[in-house]
Amino acid sequence: ADVLSQCMTQCIMRITNPIDQNRIAESVESVGRDLLKELPSLSKGQVIISGASVNTPVMLRVRTRLTEHGGQDIDAPNEWLQWFESGNEGVAARDGALFAEREVQREEDGDLLWA
Fold it and tell me: pTM for the full model?
């Protein structure tokens, strides 16, 4: 079985690819053909909701978020470089605090040993 058929509620936004539209039609039984024909023409923010959470499929508009986006990407290669170049004093202090009741020894390669 495909994943879509296992979902109890589907929130379907604009889909222009005919193959993807057919997959939606096959797996979302409660949405009628007329509503599925609207998929390529849905505008930004429009969504069709179907499934266990609604009695009948419904088309609605999702508002823009009220709060500022707070997430950000990190520069993983740079973070790794800084971690390995820093001597890891902060990591040693953190690891020691986590296991304060146990004796912690750091091997030359940086691995921790707990007694």
Answer: 0.53
- Average pLDDT score over residue span 80-89: 72
From CA 8, how far away is CA 49, in angstroms rounded?
Answer: 11
CA nearest to 47, candidates 27, 32, 63, 34? 63
DSSP element (H, E) containing 91: helix 89-98
CA-to-CA separations, 111 to 2, 30, 95, 108, in angstroms, rounded:
43, 56, 11, 7
Residue whose C-alpha is closest to residue 4's, from 36, 30, 26: 26
59 Cβ contact partners less than 8 Å away, ≥ 6 residues apart: 35, 38, 42, 46, 47, 48, 49
Kindly tell me the number of DSSP H helices and DSSP E strands found in the chain. 5, 5
